[in-house]
Amino acid sequence: MKPEVPIESVNAQAFTVPTDRPEADGTIAWNATTLIVVEIAAGGQSGLGYTYSSACVVDLIRDTLAGKIKGKDALSPQAAFAVMERAVRNLGREGIAATAISAVDTALYDLKARLLDMPLVSLLGACRTSVPIYGSGGFTTYSDPELEQQLGGWVAEQGCKFVKMKIGSEPARDPHRVEIAKHAIGDATLFVDANGAYGPKQAIALAEQFAEQDVGWFEEPVSSDDLAGLAMVRNYAPVGMEIAAGEYAYTMDYVRAMLQERAVDVQQADATRCGGYTGFLQIAALCDAFHVDLSGHCAPALHLHVACAAPRLRHLEWFHDHARIESMLFDGAPRPRNGQIAPDLTRAGNGLVFKRKDAARYAVSGAS
Predict the structure, then answer these.
(1) Which residues is 51 bridged to in the sheet?
(2) Residue 71 within any structural domain of the chain
(3) Burial of residue 225 (number of CB atoms within 10 Å: 0-12, 13-18, 19+)
(4) What is the pTM of this model?
(5) C or N terminus of the chain, fewer CB within 10 Å?
(6) Residue 73 confidence (pLDDT)
């Protein structure tokens, strides 16, 4: 048995990257995305993890989490996860604290795989060799030509069989925008995402209109906090249209409640929010127990290896903002081929190398 490898240092830094054009969904608008990068050293190796959150996460990692896990065994990330969950008990383990833990947890798993000189997917145990992706963007700020170009490009250039657009900012225009999008993607399946912008009855009425364009997936038609409302929409949605939610799940307990409510046809989970790989695998086990498929939310480069290890995983979101940032700032970020991405098994860990020089101009002042 390999002896313990004490964690020597935990470093975090924030980087805010402007979007390439204005973006919005059904409930908020934004013009930048903040990436929190965590690097953990032990045994002559460094593990890399990250989350998309607020720059204040850096201080939480530095002041609350780092001291708790330094000296712990780098080969036991689940033990470190338990320590971190206890450390944020009085802060509240959801929201900001959960994203901080997620970044550290993903770095710890990467570190363990690098210490053992194996790809992360081999450490976790592969269920598949590649993961289907769906192109995701189609923001409500986009003009009709921009919507057509982006969604059609994912199908024509990257071979995606599914693409997703945002709806909800102007409900009266949504059926028109959905029709434009479906025309652009041809035989590919169209997903729509309201980000909780509708009420249950409004969502059901719109679902009937979206069904005319063969929409196959309706994400967060109502707030994901309204489990009864989600279940209502699921019960009355047109045959063939699946209801999905779960991207804002920070804990396994929340996902269990969603599954018990029978609120979704497909459960979503985001390793940058739900407790990293430890939390994602817990959610994957719940989905397996409830016989519900799982879909990975955003951060495709970070999810790739764990997505290959999750038994009921259906696909992974190729979110425009995150795919763009990951290709800019990480060597080894995956590239789609025939609508799928696959781990590079010649690289240890998650296969990613942070391009610190390229990221320097996006560094957030004061966050270190």
Answers:
(1) 36
(2) yes
(3) exposed
(4) 0.96
(5) N
(6) 97
